[in-house]
Amino acid sequence: MNTPILSIKNAVKRYGTVNALDGVNLDVAEGEFLTLLGPSGSGKTTLLSAIAGFIGLDEGTLALRSNDITGKPPEHRDFGMVFQGYALFPTMTVRENVGFPLKIRKRPAAEIKKRVDEALEMVQMGAFADRMPSQLSGGQQQRIALARAMSFDPQILLLDEPLSALDKKLRADLQWELKDLHQKLGVTFIYVTHDQDEALSMSDRIIILKDGAIQQEGGPNTLYDRPRNRFVADFLGKSNFIEATVTGGSGPTFHCESQGTPFDLITDEPCEQGQAISLALRPERLRLGLPGAELVPATVKQVSYLGERCQVLVVREGGEEFLVSRPTWKTDITPTPGLQVSIGWDADAPVVLAPS
Ligand code: ADP
Ligand code: MG
């Protein structure tokens, strides 16, 4: 990474006995779309608020292009912000709302008008300049909140679950629009969400947080294909987990055994004979076959139809459940509860997990 636009070193924030941030180190690259992803209470808002300057850190430092800003008040950080619930000023028109950050920066009226027009154009809301927020739909209000956050050309745009109050269809539309805006503006986005799909579809890079600590960071496909531990594998997408023992072989191909079933595993992780390993296996990497066609005999327990895919829950002898995701165009077998089947996977499909 070239000089990061923002560098966070050992950020710690405690609330009583809760470590809301537990030693976060993070460099943000100029122009990237970075997403903070984690369950409720994992410290996403705390981290974003610390970046914005709304809360102070107990330990650690923040630097903007190598200049320390740890003690700087929010109004001098010049970051654009869109928070949950799009709090527009209800007594101001759309134009006044979007111009507000420029007004408090004492910009000349002509410049304010020009920038407000540009910002409204950017979010396709030019025709709504004279309306009051109450005369707008939720999605429109959120667009205005975005325009307001961008009107003064911020160095970084901070967004805390900006779409979470919107319905699914609108959220999907605005996800495309936000990505588009990010590309057009080239501004650094730091985006908070607890929605895995949203994180996967929008981000250049995702930071996964749990209990105020980074679990893993990387591009969407790296995180999805190579989750480091069980938490990440479970939180980002769905996963099956297999406890196995290494019975032989040498890298990259090992022989393993799980509940009496031998199978081969191809992995770059170092494994030793006799070692117990935990594996994650994505549902779409599992194959469903007729009895005997695949490795492990199983019985279909539940089928859930999702349009382009269907999810099949199967149980192997001994009670262990596996989720199989298969395209609905596959008609070689029609899974129904009670059907005897078998499941299998390619040797390179399971991912070896680090202990959580
Ligand atoms: P997230 O945004 O990921 O849901 P938060 O950053 O809001 O999580 O919270 C992280 C943890 O810090 C949670 O356990 C939360 O209860 C706690 N916390 C956050 N803000 C405060 C506060 N002002 N006072 C006490 N505890 C807080
Ligand atoms: Mg939050």
Automatic annotation (TrEMBL):
GO terms for molecular function: ABC-type polyamine transporter activity; ATP binding; ATP hydrolysis activity. GO terms for biological process: putrescine transport. The keyword Transport applies. This is Spermidine/putrescine import ATP-binding protein PotA. It comes from the Bacteria. SUPFAM superfamilies: MOP-like, P-loop containing nucleoside triphosphate hydrolases. Its EC number is 7.6.2.11. Belongs to the ABC transporter superfamily. Spermidine/putrescine importer (TC 3.A.1.11.1) family. Keywords: ATP-binding, Cell membrane, Membrane, Nucleotide-binding, Translocase, Transport. It catalyses: ATP + H2O + polyamine-[polyamine-binding protein]Side 1 = ADP + phosphate + polyamineSide 2 + [polyamine-binding protein]Side 1. GO terms for cellular component: ATP-binding cassette (ABC) transporter complex. InterPro entries: AAA+_ATPase, ABC_SmlMolc_Importer, ABC_transporter-like_ATP-bd, ABC_transporter-like_CS, Mo/tungstate-bd_C_term_dom, P-loop_NTPase, PotA-like, Transp-assoc_OB_typ2. Part of the ABC transporter complex PotABCD involved in spermidine/putrescine import. Responsible for energy coupling to the transport system. It comes from Harenicola maris. The complex is composed of two ATP-binding proteins (PotA), two transmembrane proteins (PotB and PotC) and a solute-binding protein (PotD). Residues 6-236 form the ABC transporter domain. Signal peptide: none annotated. The gene is potA.
